[in-house]
Design goal:
Elements: H1 7-10, H2 16-19, E1 24-25, E2 30-31, E3 43-46, E4 59-62, H3 67-70, H4 76-81, H5 85-94, E5 100-102, H6 114-135, E6 138-140, H7 148-151, E7 163-167, H8 175-191, E8 197-201, H9 207-213, H10 215-219, E9 223-225, E10 228-229, H11 230-238
Length: 241
């Protein structure tokens, strides 16, 4: 009897194990994600600091660092895409006990082919599903775009979310990025009818300054929360940005 080929393994389609658990939305077939449970987060840890994953009872683990740190040859995406069980087990052990994440922030750039930005969003969605299914964690979807083109699909599959996250670290120091960032906030508020809460990763010690950027959301009745994190604390102590 001829042995049946494992085409999923042969074609490096391990991600299908997780996208098949959900549906695809929009012209780009972005995986559907849903987050309706609003966690009470008071600290945002970063991937590279496992010792801070449980700093408080309400710590959330994030990936707001350079992609090289949390992605790459031995990153979680490759573990999923290539079906590498041993590598997936490494991440299961690394994240053992973590109950809340923000979906990975695979960086999007305005000066690269848009198809790469789209793929990075796709990867973030797949990893988010992996975290939910394997760790039974709450995973807050991340809203991000590099330009106006990215706004057309950045919310695809997030239509029923009541809570989302933004990374304000980069835009706060760049006037061009900040303008796009503000537009993305407005677009999100206007297009997610069930949205009630936004979590923000920000490193500025002046939280009021960051809240000003989210004024449109606040005026719309959205609860905007800025938990503490390592860089924010350092900048507050140093009195810098």
């Amino acid at each position: 009897m001829k042995k049946k080929k494992n085409l999923r393994k042969l074609l490096n389609l391990g991600f299908l194990d997780y996208t098949e658990l959900t549906t695809y939305i929009g012209e780009l077939d972005m995986p559907y994600v849903k987050c309706t449970k609003i966690p009470s987060i008071d600290y945002m840890a970063i991937y590279s600091r496992p010792k801070t994953y449980f700093r408080t009872e309400n710590t959330c683990v994030t990936f707001f660092e350079y992609d090289e740190i949390f992605d790459g040859l031995y990153g979680l995406w490759n573990a999923i895409a290539y079906g590498i069980k041993e590598l997936q087990e490494f991440y299961l052990e690394r994240f053992k006990g973590v109950s809340c994440f923000v979906a990975p922030d695979y960086s999007k750039c305005g000066d690269i082919p848009e198809i790469e930005n789209q793929h990075r969003q796709f990867r973030s969605r797949v990893v988010a599903i992996w975290l939910v299914k394997n760790l039974n964690a709450v995973v807050i979807p991340l809203v991000s775009c590099a330009n106006k083109n990215g706004m057309k699909y950045m919310l695809d599959g997030m239509e029923e979310c009541t809570v989302v996250a933004f990374n304000a670290k980069g835009p706060m120091g760049d006037s061009v990025q900040l303008a796009i960032f503000k537009e993305s906030i407005k677009y999100t508020v206007d297009h997610l009818p069930k949205l009630t809460t936004i979590y923000v990763y920000a490193t500025s010690p002046d939280k009021n300054k960051v809240l000003e950027v989210f004024q449109y959301a606040i005026d719309a009745g959205i609860d905007v929360r800025i938990p503490d994190n390592l860089l924010q604390t350092r900048n507050r102590i140093r009195g810098g940005e």
